[in-house]
Design goal:
6-stranded parallel sheet, globular, mainly beta, single chain, 12 strands
Length: 163
């Protein structure tokens, strides 16, 4: 026997959770209020002010903006967040703009990590303007002069991968 309350509000004070279950595929642009968990596949862009987690069978390909992102599956594309954690078995192949990055020993990260600006909100447009305004030399222009300092001549991009 169940108990039914008559004065229960349809709105809850709790944050909602959006789940894309294993076997489901979504494509497009979405804006999520509350947390999101992906065990299926999503291709496109996701904009969230809360956390996003990608399960072991989950895969996101595209642009993601969220508060915190936890990856056990795969993420490919571009990511803007405050913190990114790559779990054991998780794979991230992306340009990442985040304040905090942590990778478990068996996690994989291939891409670039940029620190966000100090006093501005993270947006695609602001980061794109910031990246375009950086004056980067071409690989052909890099000259290694052992007497003036080897460190100054290192490239901006380094890819780390454990095989």
């Amino acid at each position: 026997m169940g108990i039914i309350k008559r004065n229960v509000s349809a709105k809850s004070n709790r944050s909602s959770v959006t789940i894309i279950a294993q076997g489901n595929r979504f494509h497009g642009e979405t804006s999520v209020s509350g947390k999101m968990h992906v065990d299926g596949e999503f291709e496109g862009s996701i904009d969230s002010s809360d956390d996003i987690s990608i399960g072991k069978s989950g895969r996101i390909c595209g642009r993601v903006r969220a508060h915190a992102v936890n990856v056990s599956g795969e993420l490919e594309g571009e990511l803007i967040c405050e913190s990114l954690h790559i779990e054991r078995g998780g794979r991230v192949c992306a340009n990442v703009y985040c304040s905090t990055l942590s990778i478990d020993p068996d996690g994989h990260f291939v891409g670039e990590r940029h620190l966000p600006g100090q006093h501005r909100r993270l947006t695609w447009e602001a980061e794109a303007r910031h990246v375009e305004s950086e004056d980067r030399p071409d690989a052909e222009e890099l000259v290694i002069d052992l007497e003036t300092g080897l460190i100054d001549s290192l490239p901006d991009r380094i890819t780390l991968s454990r095989k």
